[in-house]
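User: quick one
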Amino acid sequence: MNNIYIQPDNWSIIEEGFEAKRVKSSESLMSLGNGAMGQRANFEEHYSGETFQGSYVAGVYYPDKTRVGWWKNGYPEYFAKVLNAPNWIGINVTINGESLDLAKCNKVENFRRELNMKEGWLSRSFTATLQNFIEVKVETKRFLSLEIDEIGAIEYHVTPLNNDAQINFSPYLDNGITNEDSNWDDKFWDVLSVNHEDEQAFIVSRTMKTNFYVCTAMQTQVSLNGEILEQDKTVNDAIDTIAFTYQNQVTKGDTITLTKFGGYTSDRNHDKNELITVAKKTLNQVTELGFSALLEQQKQAWAKIWDMADITIEGDVAAQQGIRFNIFQLNQTYLGKDARLNIGPKGFTGEKYGGSTYWDTEAYCIPFYMATKDQQVAKSLLEYRYHHLEKAIENAEKLGFTNGAALYPMVTMNGEECHNEWEITFEEIHRNGAIAFAIFNYFRYTGDFSYIPEKGLEVLIGIARFWQQRANFSEAKNKYMILGVTGPNEYENNVNNNWYTNYIAKWCIDYTIETLAKVKEGYSDDYSRIIGKTKLTDNELDLWKEVANNMYFPFSETKNVYLQQDGFLDKELITVENLPKSQRPINQKWSWDRILRSPYIKQADTLQGFYFFEDHFTIEELERHFDFYEPFTVHESSLSPCVHSIQAAKLGRMDQAYEFYLRTSRLDLDDYNHEVEEGLHITSMAGTWMSIVEGFGGMRIVNDTLSFEPKIPAEWNGYSFKVNFRNLILKIHVTKSETKFELEGHRDLEILVNGKAVTISANNLVTV
Amino acid sequence: MNNIYIQPDNWSIIEEGFEAKRVKSSESLMSLGNGAMGQRANFEEHYSGETFQGSYVAGVYYPDKTRVGWWKNGYPEYFAKVLNAPNWIGINVTINGESLDLAKCNKVENFRRELNMKEGWLSRSFTATLQNFIEVKVETKRFLSLEIDEIGAIEYHVTPLNNDAQINFSPYLDNGITNEDSNWDDKFWDVLSVNHEDEQAFIVSRTMKTNFYVCTAMQTQVSLNGEILEQDKTVNDAIDTIAFTYQNQVTKGDTITLTKFGGYTSDRNHDKNELITVAKKTLNQVTELGFSALLEQQKQAWAKIWDMADITIEGDVAAQQGIRFNIFQLNQTYLGKDARLNIGPKGFTGEKYGGSTYWDTEAYCIPFYMATKDQQVAKSLLEYRYHHLEKAIENAEKLGFTNGAALYPMVTMNGEECHNEWEITFEEIHRNGAIAFAIFNYFRYTGDFSYIPEKGLEVLIGIARFWQQRANFSEAKNKYMILGVTGPNEYENNVNNNWYTNYIAKWCIDYTIETLAKVKEGYSDDYSRIIGKTKLTDNELDLWKEVANNMYFPFSETKNVYLQQDGFLDKELITVENLPKSQRPINQKWSWDRILRSPYIKQADTLQGFYFFEDHFTIEELERHFDFYEPFTVHESSLSPCVHSIQAAKLGRMDQAYEFYLRTSRLDLDDYNHEVEEGLHITSMAGTWMSIVEGFGGMRIVNDTLSFEPKIPAEWNGYSFKVNFRNLILKIHVTKSETKFELEGHRDLEILVNGKAVTISANNLVTV
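Assistant: Done. Structure below.
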């Protein structure tokens, strides 16, 4: 672990003391987001030390021209990346003419930052002695409104402590921003206008190529000891920036405050000619409301989220802080309000992979959103892929597939493939399976079959077609095989018969056939429409069945386990515990070929299949495979520990389950992978939630029934979580001795607890 | 085939008629080189159409910063590439004020170019009508002197045909050149000075990073109807160019001529402060000699080369032209005079891969140079790798190997790895085997063992160490394996147990052990020195033996063949003849993953092993493997057809052998792979030579004895070649009915013909 400095606290992420080397980590950890926009926890005032500046507007991306060393046929022309958006939070401060810059002060004391997750705000306070020996106390608070999601607010207080001082504020907007991960140093933004009116300023700009129009806006206000000052300002505008400057002579001990509202309006939501008008209206609205009232709304909005999504853990503050951090960041990233959006692996906390959609959504995030939100949210996530079906078919065509076969992209913003490593782009095709699985999972959990005849079945058909075409018949083995793939374990590339891929491929075909029959029976109009549209024939179905019924699965008689891929047993099978610490993480210490031919597993691969299809296997089979593969797993993917935690819990290995839980829940807080500076691992945070609910709580759906097998780590006194199951809210509280179930709602719910049926009455507490 | 327009001719490459779309192809095909420098056949005068400009100085390279999409640990920081060098051939011409530009003339007639391979010069002639209606006849001749290899010469004649005309020549030097394959558009050259004195001009420049100092120089002279004119000129110099302008009023029918000598001196051969002085001296020398006398020298120098290296083919002009083109280009690229140089796959004819060293040298080129030059030339090529041994050890260390294991780079200029595709850079490790094989092959052919104790053994030890460490024990198969490699067939990546790689790895270890014993016995001082230096222990030798004696070779009982790699039989085994033409070449039509999982072979892989180690297998085994693999081979590597040609000949399948021969010998002339515009395939040209000598001639070394099994394609009346075998020159002439052997030299030679011993007396013709 890199950099453990976050104070233990049940509800907040707290940093104490200023250390320049932590700045970039804290910028990631204390990022703010409201689903519509987000930003790293950059300082408002100028900071000349090392920092990674980032503001982001959901859905506003840039297709950066692909950069490769050696082009391979089929590579996409561009990589859609999240754009660093204009900065609206900036407030430069000078004190007696000297710029306040934490990197250059004589002294910085009592530095404290708090990301208050309960109420959704970020505060910072410190006492600084400048080079001119003026000592000031600074206190700031900032949040991005959940209620009015085009707006954020900042209060910035400065109190001179040892002298009267001339304190000038220069709040500004800055469109002169770049992406650190730009491939060709292209210009991403074209500024169209820079305006101001009264205390408001606006920059309208357009993204190159994608032509998103965005208005970045601010409104500012100065007060002294809480009283608003009416005062003159100077305005400095340039080609891509605008700043107001307020000059204030402040008496020692008095507090001068700049209040700044700011944010974005974009033509994703408004007419592009109305962007300033809408921004103006919103700024007027929040100015009238005032900072405090807006903050009060924020607390209430977060209280509503927490009421449904919170997990409490008693007796283990690190674990409690970890899970809340995960739940908080997931909600900052995606709230399900906008079906055009998805959950980027880095959310609004960084650039790399940021904002784009991966299979993480289907494999890890959907269960969290199904259980903690209205089921419409998960449905939106499914629909996102439905809307991309045509592009997935085009993507498959580029790779030589025909007849409506669909290959969903590895990384995407608008349905087109963006990634460009052949072993991933072309070969990590298991992603298609997760997309089908999510359709199954959504129905299993919500009981809402209607999505399938409406939209889901078309997606399933495209996916089944892909798998049938992608498999080939091996005469030598008299079976169908899937050659040349990369499984979820990306530490093996271009392998044959990755067990996970073959298994989910067969399952996709079987499930599509089964679903076709159900739709034919119950939704004949939809069935006719879909058959007409997809031109699916009985002949083709026979081909599907031929492949699914004769799929090859590598298996070792000696070890009595399915093999991750054909060649796994030929490797030198030295377990991770025998690997010197100096060699880890292997992705930083070893060359790629050495990783590939090693037995080390980046993330659960065979075990991922056992997780999805748990009911296909006995507990003994799970145990055997867990015992075989876990010792080779280095968990260098953020998506790895959660599945292991769930399976360890199922096997009753609570110590191990707890260890994996901590690792997944505090991955970023404790910076296990030495990379938190670049941003947070948002999608894996949903895996943390699963570790508790499915792992410790043992929650499953068994034949349309919620089922629990509650367990509790030795370190904990108790834990609780809530789930929304088919519009009934069930609260589960587990202690070492008992489990309490409490149902909110209008009707009874029959559940299974450790395999036994228990009926929970509405608004009644049941203890088991 | 793309673009067949080269006229059939025994000794020349002739193009008739001007077509803009052929310009880049002809620029490649008619490239000139003299081992020390080279250039594409760019026009001297300005040409505004599509052209690929290129001049190159042997050994002057630039380490271009690596560009990748996704960095993998272990990638080298840069790719050393051949540099486009300052242009010295340029002669701009204006006629009555209009620039002579073949892309803009009203009419171009009687356009003809000839690359005369017998005498080593390039000529061009045409009649052009300009937009100003002046009609001129132009005739040029150009060559790069073999004798004085820092100099080339041009004669450029213009005759106004329909009017008197003002004809101005502006010969120039231009250092404002760039590389088309530059990764980052870096500046490669830094110009230090631009000077002129009398009719000479000089630009001294330095390469960035590598700091090669190069002086580009010219001397010019104007004559009218063969009489030298003393006349004034104007000089235009700029920051990186210098031009002289000569103005001439020419009477209709008179011929005005510019003679230009030019070239390079560099600090690879001279003190960097003497570059201008040396250039001046050389220019004076050739000016005194004159164009015609220098050309006469050139003819004699080429006559000497042809006397030894020529292959004649009777009755098949396409085949004759093909082989001479190959021999000519090889000699233009590398003459063996400078042990610091090697044979770049594109020689002096293009940029991509250009000038760098690949395994092609050891696998394909050494036999040609051994047989057609003094044996010192082949020895220099071996020494090149000896000098890079330390870097090869460093390269292996970067990939995790220890204890002096050496991995030679895939692509290199100075011994450091340059390439950056993980599946090649890290995995195409078979290259190490070819480097060891060349040492064996050199000794087998020349009988000169002395190189081995002096230098070769150290290389062998480093290579054997690499193989032992790179193999791993598979408990499942109770054998040693080599996992995660790319064989010579680059259409499979990251496969396990590539038969060729495993076979050559075992052979390397066995051969090193055998050689160690021989050196111990016969060269005990060298042995002690080497053991001291390498710290080789008996323990380590035991490890080597353990691996070599227990190496795994994938084999199919059903097919009774060795398998190219573990998974080969699981592929869909559809032969090439069943692949629609529209799908070929697959490297242009298919995505990379599809190629990888297909059975299609880019170049001989298992068969390459059967070629190197022919005497380890029976003819029946060869036939079985040839019949199994050839139908899957698409020959999309220039290195593929020659091996197939040799083996088809051995199997008595002369039609097939002939077809492969044509394909290899006319690969560039007939542009089989649609890429001749980028440059020629120099290294595979040595394979063409092998196709005749080893394939049709059946030449082998059997127990220190030259052996022949002559065959002849039905299309030919006869063919002949010469070989230098241990300082005896043997000429072989094969016709349909008989084979004649003629020996130059001082002693008899016993050879085998079709397995029977025949003694050839010196200076006597023997007919068999």
